[in-house]
Queue: 4 jobs
Job 1
Amino acid sequence: MESKNYLEDLNEIKTMMTKSSRFISLSGLSGILAGIYALIGAAVAFYLVSNSTRGYLILDGDIFRICFAILLGVAFLSAITGIYLTTKKAKKNNEKIWDNSSKRLLFNFLIPLVAGGIYILIILNQERYGHTAALMLIFYGLALINASKYSLGDIRYLGITEIILGLICAIMPSFGFWFWVFGFGIMHIIYGAWMHYKYDLK
């Protein structure tokens, strides 16, 4: 009996330490919706490019600007949805949305992501856009792995998957669009569903 109480106390202490050092209220549902936004955005971009006069993207074309705006729209919608659902979950768990753990999570997520975004813009400006999808996947994967130290460890596995997809995509850059769809669309839905059933439905 005493041994059982001892183990329960240890588990409670471990849970308290985890909550104090990691932000654990990330919403799985926001991951599912982010994946759906990515698939819708990709479908619209594919339709526009397929029905354009050239049938492919060029940097100084109107279709590229529209596709870039769609990309920003997907990122914005995903961020807003993530903030809303995560805030809602944090309130339900009586957890602060903006404390040291969430600040560390956001800061460490943004470092590789911003660096990668700037690098991609630089090579786009140099008209070297063949590896754009691969670089987006790789830097996003690095951002997830870097952030996983300050949140749920499961994020690391999504990050590793994104990096692997990015590396394969670098070998086959002509399939970049489809790797992007799989990495940012399908994988987010799978990951979000896994997180939702594992953590949100408890």
Job 2
Amino acid sequence: MKNNLQFNFTVDKATKTIFIEKEFAAELSLVWDAFTKQEILDQWWAPQPWKSVTKYMDFKIGGRRFYAMVGPEGQEHWSIQQYSSISPKTNFKMLNAFADKDENPDLPGSNWDLNFNEQNGMTKVSITIKNDSLVRMEKMIEMGFKEGFTMTLNHLENLLATLSQK
């Protein structure tokens, strides 16, 4: 595995936006699938030892993913992702919001814009997370979003290395 893959995490409080860039040593189609297919998402979309458990996912414009991050003691933190735009293998956008187990969203959420770009077998994912509320963004950061999402993306990097060899 290549160890010098690009990773940037920047917070701009003035625009209430988080910018993340992560490079993966994998082809675009595999990285796209990792972000858009339930069976792969559930293998990495949670900081270990937590696990992602998707109740349902309908990856289409207007569709949703309703899932929980489940902790080692059985704790559950539910979220909803609602897809607002999809350009296959290049971009998708979604509203991401915490929720209760009955799928009631805790609004406001944040708007995620994910861009995928491959060069020479390396795929870069650029994620822009725009928050309506500075308070919500600061709460996300205070809850350890940077550390947790960094661990999660590193877990994906390892998973992609394994999946690329199949």
Job 3
Amino acid sequence: MANPIQQLLFLLHITRSHGIVRRYFVVNGFDGALTMLGLNMGFYVGGGVEASVALSACLGAAIALGMSGLTSAYISESAERQLWLRELEEAMVRDLTSSAHGRAARIVPLLVALVNGAAPFLISLAITVPFWLALADIRPWPDPVVAAIGLAFIAMFGLGVFLGRVSDSSWLWSGIKAVLIAVVTVAIIWLVGD
């Protein structure tokens, strides 16, 4: 009997869903990092804000991003997997509910939804660390908003590096391209808010 991780990998294999999970992680990870960058740039351009207010706003956005990712991916992937199972059952002229394909149609949408919801939530949460530290009177940096903006840039670079590794291309160039997206975002917010 294979362990749960091996079973999960097998279900991803028979549904060819590895790429889908990876795409959801990166796409919604970008959403989380860019949303936090936008929020914190808004605070910065607007003249600053209390750490408690910034943390509440960032947490609200992080939870909304996580819930959006979780529910939208589950609804869409579940529908796609049920269609895939019905077509397979029609082709094989048998009920596959209790087969590996049936399990895959039920479990893979849950996995995809978890990844899609967790990526923006966890990345957003990591970017709020300067506010948590400021509220605990730990200030390794003078302005938690600026520190959060810096962490958003690091998150963008990390996602770019991940994409570079996945595509077997230059991880450095891929990371730089992701940072350039963040730079353009900051420039637009700066122009609009000025």
Job 4
Amino acid sequence: MNTKVKEIMNTKLETIQPDATVYDAIEKLVDRRMRSLIVLPKDDNDVYGVITVRDIVFKVISKNLDPHKIKIEEIASKPVISIDKETEIEHLIKLMEKFNIARVFVHEGKQIVGVVSLFDVLSATLIARARRD
């Protein structure tokens, strides 16, 4: 396909502080109709994390924990799985398959600049096919 990650990535990212509550994340996710938030590093020695709707449902709601009392850093996944924006999409797909994940974050240097979901890959495939026809 010869498509680079930067060509299909979504740059609409939302972040949350690690000391925010899960309830704060729920509000943000529902309000913005998103499935994940980037968890910002606590300091220069920390790394980016991610919290997803799945994390909240299975780690908090299903266990009847109070989302007002649980901090994001307690349930976030760290570090995020990310890929350079210049990487070919085929490598991205292999990464998604290897880690059984639906989205991969895109970095430029140490900064997270985008995200690519399975749906973005599907859309790129359709566009590539349409260009050949």
